[in-house]
Amino acid sequence: MRCAGLALAGALVLATGLPAPAQPADPPPPRRIVPPPYGLRVAPLDEAQRGALQQAYAVQATYVVGLAYHCGLRLGDVIVAVNGQAFDSERAFWDLLAAHAPAIRLDVQRGEARLSLPLDEAAPECAG
């Protein structure tokens, strides 16, 4: 009796014109985690933060791992220049990194201290 009920239910679905149930989709491919360039992600400072630092533009380190960490950069550090050159957008910041690679130095504001940190695998300060 139970089988007849299932067959009847299947016939009703077909008779109503509803689409057949979808087959399970293939599982998504595994995610490939790509580390950020230099082990670093940044976000622009807002106007009030820039004003407090007296900077026209700067970015703050929001994610620091690998090379950036081993070279001394820390979460929350504010990057104000690359190899002594100021930048006016996040895109310009990344362009300066690319232009100066591999011999990169970051001018960083950490609290009240102003630091010059390398971002270069060959720099002795970056030995991890």
Automatic annotation (TrEMBL):
<keyword id="KW-0732">Signal</keyword>
<protein>
    <recommendedName>
        <fullName>PDZ domain-containing protein</fullName>
    </recommendedName>
</protein>
<dbReference type="Pfam" id="PF17820">
    <property type="entry name" value="PDZ_6"/>
</dbReference>
<dbReference type="InterPro" id="IPR041489">
    <property type="entry name" value="PDZ_6"/>
</dbReference>
<feature type="signal peptide">
    <location>
        <begin position="1"/>
        <end position="22"/>
    </location>
</feature>
<dbReference type="InterPro" id="IPR001478">
    <property type="entry name" value="PDZ"/>
</dbReference>
<dbReference type="InterPro" id="IPR036034">
    <property type="entry name" value="PDZ_sf"/>
</dbReference>
<feature type="domain" description="PDZ">
    <location>
        <begin position="36"/>
        <end position="112"/>
    </location>
</feature>
